[in-house]
Amino acid sequence: MPSLLTAELVRLNARASSKLDAIVQAGELLAAAGYIEPAYIESLQGREQVSNTYLGSGVAIPHGMQEDRHLIRRTGVAVLQLPEGVEWHDGERANLVVAIAAQSDEHIALLQRLTRLIGDPAQLLALVEARDPHVLVEALNGATRGTSTVIDTTPADFEQCIELVLDYPHGLHARPASAWVATSKRYQAAMRVRHGKLAADPKNLVSLLQLGATANAQLVLSAQGVDAAEALAALKRTIENLSAEEHERAAAARARRQKAQPVAWAPLDPATLFDGVSAGPGFAIGPVRVLRTTQPDIQDRPADTLEATHQLDRALRETASELDALTRDTTARLGAAEGEIFAAHRELLNDTELLNAAARMLLDGHGVAWSWHQAAEQQAARLAALPDPLLAARATDLRDVARRVLKHLGEDVATDTRLDTPAILIAEDLAPSDTAMLDPAVTLGFCTVSGGPTSHTAILARTLGVPAAVACGAALMDIADGSEAVLDGSSGRLYIGVSATDRDRARHTQRQLADEAQRAAANRALPAATLDGHVLEIGANITRPEQVRDAIASGADGVGLMRTEFLFLERHDAPSEDEQYDCYRRMVEASGGRQLIIRTLDIGGDKQVPYLNLPHESNPFLGVRGLRLCLRRPDLFLPQLRALYRAAKDGPLWIMFPMVSTLDEARQALALAETVRVELGAPKVPLGIMVETPSAAAFADHFAALVDFFSIGTNDLTQYVLAVDREHPELARMAESLHPAVLRMIKQTVEGARRHRKWVGVCGGLAGDPLGASILAGLGVDELSMSARDIPAVKSRLRASRLDALQALARRALDCEDVDAVRALDSDDIKAAA
Ligand code: PEP
Ligand code: MG
Q1: Which residue in 433, 461, 437 sits closest to 448, CA to CA?
Q2: β-bridge partners, 11
Q3: Last residue of a domain, which of 408, 436, 463?
Q4: Where do transmembrane segments lie in this chain (predicted)?
Q5: Given this model, what pLDDT does residue 577 score?
Q6: What is the pLDDT of residues 186-242, one digit of tens each?
Q7: Closest CA to 110 of 142, 64, 145
Q8: What is the helix (H) or strand (E) element at residue 427, kind and residue range?
Q9: Cα separation of 31 and 18, whole Å?
Q10: In terms of domains, do 787 and 642 share one?
Q11: Among 216, 714, 797, 811, which one has the highest count of C-beta atoms within 10 angstroms of its own C-beta?
């Protein structure tokens, strides 16, 4: 395609008072360069009267009416860059106005590139902020940056290159690959990773996975462009830094497999065995329910290309926020490693090749859902064909994500994994989303034809505590629905046709295992009292009322942190006061008079909500987040406070404000809360702050004079004390809450609270780590709040310790030089404390 855009047709840093003004300015560029007769500018305006040319993500594409084509001298486009944006349609703002004068259909390829750009917010932002017109010229004329995929003819490496051997025991799979992508995207340079004859763009997740790089693969990293050297060095560091973690994970998986070996029961009479791989320990006896998934039947319903592009863009954005919410929810419910599964899924949505392929089909006139489905299926089939089973399993992840997008495009693609009566679920494969949603109360266990022990599905099954076997072979699907079965998840075996005597023996074994589990549960319910009788309160961190029951069953005395932002995610607008009230009231009811600390909205930083249209922050963690945002947005804050105080009439709750750094912020929040309370005639409730900034810790004595309680958020406190972005792909591992500098801040906070006899808890990740919990207890906190599943281990550690020994441990930890030295105290002191 000839170049449609030249530098003279780009106007950087422009301003427009209105949409009309923007169209005229862009039209004048085309006219001045001789591409159109000036009269065509009117045609550009005329089009706008009959259709909306806003493409999505801040891009608008005004183009003239068909009947005015004779006013075009030659095909071209002009770009107006509007950093401040201009209102285009229905509140949507355009930052890039791409005016098209096309004699025939030469602009179709340009549209395709724009569609692809819309799926790549980072590159789009680079174009809005570019100070060199050639950056826009290259991007829109189709320079290759950020768009390459796996190239199966040997490509030349870029100018600068380094070689390395991949030291990951499980090869390059989605989790580390997402970190590679995050690092690479921070640089402008064009980059390439070559593995033999295959090369991939490290800014593209699927492309990296398709390299099929297994353990010890020889890789060549190369780059070219202004920051090529830095980009290469950073990517190399990321790759190497992840190595230790990959080895740890592999060792843990090996240990799990070894532990999974003992066979608790085996039939003595003949029975049919399906020998698979253990994916979740435990024992299940019951009927099977065979889930026969059919390929989604997506009809090709051609639609207007522009409208279809809007639809796809919307569906992708909705899926992205749904996955963000799922990541946070899964992290809070099941743990960080489980949450990362869905973070990696979200990255798949940025895959330029996938978006490109879908856009190509759209532009060929196919329907939006059909195009997306075809593009995703082609990619998934390529992944599934990789020789390494671990990498091939990523096809399941891609199909899972693709299905979510189809759902947002209005297709009925739900897999119904709900069971009415208890059963062992049998399926070809289960998507991670389906597994995360399984109800352990009726899902006795599950077996799949394919999948592997390290698949995301298996990770989730283990966390949910559902017995499971994967890779049981295709014959599994021949089992008749309703057949009685015995599943030994620990050895990965499913038996069908088991004799009545063997079934009785199996039930006996199952009862024995259940008794053992019950004994463990009974210990969980005991108080977290040290050997010398000092009792710590144990709270649970939750996001939804339904989780209260599980938290209490896991041994929590109450709720130490309810993160309310989850109410605001996965939707298009803020929840109303009534909706929030309903949720908080249900929390109060479920808590049944136990401690319940509800945190007000903590948005900003790592948690973003698209519909709030918050301005871009170059340092989100240092920007308008948490209470700072709430104080600026009474439209969000007041309904939440009202809902909380209404719920307070139904039962006890405490209100806590996040991300507080100055006394004035706390005073403002307290004053607003009091105004709302008086208006509603609600009872007084304890009002506290999270201590998660160094200023709050340093000023703890002042804050303690103002508020009723503290809860220390060690996750944020650590990132601010150590100046380490908790999400930074390379540095996040340095964000260690056990660092003595963080512990000293906690000590100062406890001392500040004590001076005014105020209650102090900890709700960051450190509280759920047995060593961290021991040190925190020694530092004198009143409460530890954590994920429900961390409670038993923390309780048993505290119950085996003496308070004076924990205090000595804390003193020694404060004097340590670094995290390793604090960890080294673990073995000696904890044993001595017992
Ligand atoms: C924290 O920062 O420790 C905390 C509990 O809050 P969040 O992780 O939700 O930021
Ligand atoms: Mg926090």
Answers
A1: 461
A2: 80
A3: 408
A4: none
A5: 97
A6: 898 889 999 888 888 898 877 787 777 877 889 999 999 889 999 999 999 999 888
A7: 142
A8: strand 423-427
A9: 20
A10: yes
A11: 714
